[in-house]
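Subject: mismatched residue count in predicted assembly?

I count 271 residues in my input, but I want to confirm that the predicted structure covers every chain. Input:
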Amino acid sequence: MQSVDVAYAEEWKMDHGIMVPLHFLTPRYDMDIIPVNINCQGPPLTPLNRVWEFGKALRRACDSVPEKIAVIGTGGISHWPATPNSVKIVEEWDRDYLDKWLANDKEALLAYTDEDTLKDAGQGGFEIRTLTAISGLCEGKKGDLWFYEPIPIFSVGCTVGVMEV
Amino acid sequence: MSLYFVQKLLYNLNREPSVQAQFKTDIDSLLDAYKLTDEERSWLKNGDVGELYIHGVNGQILMHYAALIGNEWDEYIQAMKDGLKKHGQVRDGIYRAVDGGTGGAV
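Triage response: the counts match. Full output below for your records.
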C-alpha cells in the first residue's frame, strides 16, 4: 500500500453490490472473501486516478501470494438508485463506457468528471469506479463483454464482463 | 432540519433489530435520543417518506425505512414523487431531483 490510502472497518454489513454476486458465485459461502469498498455514494468521492492506482495495488498484492485469486468489480453504470428516477437507465452512456472499459482505454476511463457523470448517468454512475479499478488491475489488457442489458425493474443495466490478466 | 440526526436514526433503525423493536413499541423514547425538530419527529412517526426525501434523506437509507413501515417499492417511489409535487425541490442533502423527479438527480 505504498501508492494508495486505505482504511479498515471492523463493522460492515454488506450491501447488494457485494452480496448479489457472491450469492451466485459462491452460494454456500464456503470460499474466503476479502471485501473491498470504494466510496461511490457521496462526496468526497475517490478520484478516478486513485481508483486506477488502487486497482494496480490490488494486482501487486494478488501477485505477491501463491493463491489463485478472482477479483470482482461490482457496480452499476448509469442509474439513479432509490430516487424517483430509479427506473431510468441510459443505455447509450453505458455502452460508451463499456467500449472504453473493454478497450482498457486508460486515458478515456480517467477522463470522466463527476459533474458530467452525475448529469448524464445519475449518482449511481459514480459506481464506474469499481469497474475502472479492475481496468487498472488489468492495465494493458483487454476485456470481453459477456452480457449487457438494461433491466429497469433492477434500476440498472446488468453487465458481466471479464478482463484478461 | 437536523438532517444528520434524522439519517443517523434511520441508519441505526435499518441495521439494528433492537432499534426496530423500539421503533414499534416506544417510538417517543427512541426519537428522544436524537436531536430532532418537532417536524422531523412528526415525519418519522407518521411515515412521511415524501417529506423526508425532499428534506434530503439519502435514498439508500430512506428506502429501507420505507420498507420497514410497509411500503412496497412502487409506493416508496411514488411517495418521493408526491413529496416533490407537493413540497417542491429537494432542499437539503447531497442530490437534487430534476424535472419533478423525471429528469434524474443532480
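Residues 18 and 24 of chain A are 11 Å apart (CA to CA). Marking this ticket as 'not a bug'.
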